[in-house]
Amino acid sequence: MPAMTMRTRRPARTAEPLDLGPVDPSAFPDSETRRAIDGGAASERFHEVLAEGGTVLADGAMGTMLFASGLQFGDPPEVWNLTQPEVIRRIHRGYLDAGSRIVMTNTFGGNRLRLGLHNLDTRVAELNQTAAVLLRSEVDAMDSSGPAALVAGDIGPTGAIMAPTGTLEYEEAVDVFAEQAGALVAGGVDLIWIETMSDLIEVKAAIEGVRRVAPGIALITTMTFDTRGSTMMGVSPEQAVVALNAWGADAVGGNCGNGPDELVGVMRRMRSAAPDVVLVAKSNAGMPELIDMRAVYRADPEYMASEALEMRDAGATIVGGCCGTTPDHLRAMAGVLAIR
Questions:
Q1: What CATH number has the domain bearing residue 228?
Q2: Domain count across the chain
Q3: d(CA 66, CA 68)
């Protein structure tokens, strides 16, 4: 029996259509243009993995594993790429051993705005490139003993609010994301994964920033639908999948949120709105409880495995875990996805 009781899924709602306006092909090249840049070399490994068919398993939480290893609340996880590299490599190795085919670098907060909160804004290149090198070394060591895995450069939100609601101007955001993406590419990533976004304007800036430094690289984008089926900024699954696909993402979906039951609904709505888009589902292990100043997630590996099947059946091609998930969760997910 699952370790927690989940809520009944809400019926899908119809979203208002989204007017994207004209898409600038120089900033957001389509797939044909991207592949023509280098003959498709920059995205070749990603497309080879997809072409194998079946569900592709991503990894689970980095932060959960770091807290279990001694990271203190409020400390920047990216510093551990320099001070505790063996811990980072061990975490990556755990997910690779569990069967993950796409593993993300320890760089969620690796942009200069978030790092600036810790006076680390001048070390963006060092922290991101080192993170990519650490993961690259683990993936390359695994390639000879099993199916090839991919190194995904992780880019999270800036933590600032975009203008005009907030103070972060679009061009500055593009530059912030381009700086981080450039360092990740220099470190040898196979693709970029933009995650946990709530504002379409910010994720658009992130996509443009990535394309400025690596126009042909494979790109996954996921948003967080944690507010009555929409993001915190009111973006619906239908609006997200249409916009992110138009801006040139190779795969689109949801991560984090309130647990796998709600993300299953997001997958269904995205699939209905865009039947041909590669979808991604990377859910938390349920809703967290605060115990002794730590977030505790109650969904056990067996429950997450059963929900992985639901997410796949709802349309997700790439499935993984977010906050609260561990290699044990991913191992259970790999088992059911492989045998059914």
A1: 3.20.20.330
A2: 1
A3: 5
Q: Is 144 exposed, middle or buried (0-12, 13-18, 19+ CB in 10 A)?
A: exposed
pTM above 0.70, yes or no: yes
Contact between residue 199 and residue 162 where contact means Cβ atoms under 8 Å apart: yes
Residue 99 lies inside a defined structural domain of this protein: yes
Nearby residues of 34 by Cβ (< 8 Å), 6 or more positions away: 42, 43, 215, 216, 248
Q: Is residue 104 part of a domain?
A: yes
Angle between helices 301-313 and 327-339 (to 10 degrees): 50
pLDDT tens for the chain, residues 1 to 340? 333 333 334 444 445 567 788 899 999 999 899 988 889 999 999 999 999 999 999 999 999 999 999 999 899 999 999 999 999 999 999 999 999 999 999 999 999 999 999 999 999 999 999 999 999 999 999 866 667 899 999 999 999 999 999 999 999 999 999 999 999 999 999 999 999 999 999 999 999 999 999 999 999 999 999 888 999 999 999 999 999 999 999 999 999 998 999 999 999 999 999 999 999 999 999 887 777 767 778 899 999 999 999 999 999 999 999 999 999 999 999 999 984 4
In a domain, 218, yes or no: yes
**How far apart, in whole angstroms, are the C-alpha atoms of residue 193 and residue 203?**
11
